[in-house]
Specification:
The complex is a heterodimer of chains A (113) and B (113). Chain A is an all-beta fold and 113 residues long. Helix content of chain A is 0%, strand content 50%. Chain A has no helices and 11 strands. In chain A, a hairpin with a 2-residue loop joins strand 5 and strand 6. Chain A is globular. Chain B is mainly β and 113 residues long. Helix content of chain B is 0%, strand content 50%. Chain B is built from no helices and 12 strands. The termini of chain B are far apart. The chains are: A mainly beta (113), B mainly beta (113). Chains A and B meet through strand 4, strand 5, strand 9 and strand 10 of A and strand 5, strand 6, strand 10 and strand 11 of B.
Chain lengths: 113, 113
């Protein structure tokens, strides 16, 4: 079945450590996205990529980094510079056209202690 | 800029009641509009979409009509069930330049038996 796989589902890290969240899709989609979800704030865009080897900052990119070396993969690194990293992270992909919908993974809940 | 505004929740209804969740948007150009649903601890699932003015999206008894004159995309269902309890997100996709998705803050629906 085609879809988006995020791993792991739950992740715990100590403060000051970098952590990388995985996102893989087999939908052959050109565009991929990372969102952060906090209670009462909806989804906020962190980074997005329209094509391999290219990506753009979203609204809350500070303290995060990404790479897009393969069409299928768009990993997100939460660095120690991110002031409040505990959140639910959602990865999505789409065909990259204005009328196309985004498909979401199941999310990764990151807790920094 | 582009933005989506949803009615605040939570919305609490009895089973078989009529549901309306309001959504209005601000956008340049002619965005596509979406409703997504999220169940606890999961990612977002597309519920329905509309890609041009006066289009009606529908799925599983839910409907929404793209109203350009009022910049609205209200979600409706004639008779809700307990299983409809979830968080509902209204979203738009930008149509010029880079394609990305802007989400509302979400509306929690609780349906009581």
């Amino acid at each position: 079945d085609g879809g988006i796989t995020q791993s792991p589902k739950y992740l715990f890290r100590k403060e000051g450590q970098n952590v990388t969240l995985s996102c893989e899709q087999n939908l052959n989609h050109d565009a991929m996205y990372w969102y952060r979800q906090d209670p009462g704030q909806g989804l906020r865009l962190i980074y997005y990529s329209q094509i391999v080897n290219d990506f753009q900052k979203g609204d809350i990119a500070e303290g995060y980094s990404v790479s897009r070396e393969k069409k299928e993969s768009f990993p997100l690194t939460v660095t120690s510079a991110q002031k409040n990293p505990t959140a639910f992270y959602l990865c999505a992909s789409s065909r990259g056209q204005g009328t196309a919908e985004a498909f979401f993974g199941q999310g990764t809940r990151l807790t920094v202690v | 800029g582009n933005s989506v505004t949803q009615m605040e929740g939570p919305v609490t209804l009895s089973e078989e009641a009529f549901l309306t969740i309001n959504c209005t948007y601000t956008a340049t150009g002619y965005p596509s509009l979406f409703w997504y649903v999220q169940y606890p601890g999961e990612g977002l699932q597309l519920l329905l979409k509309a890609t041009k003015a006066d289009d009606k999206g529908s799925n599983k008894g839910f409907e929404a009509t793209y109203r350009k004159e009022t910049t609205s995309f209200h979600l409706e269902k004639g008779s809700v069930q307990v299983s409809d309890s979830a968080v509902y997100f209204c979203a738009l996709s930008t149509t010029s330049g880079t394609y990305k998705y802007i989400f509302g803050t979400g509306t929690r629906l609780k349906v009581l038996a």
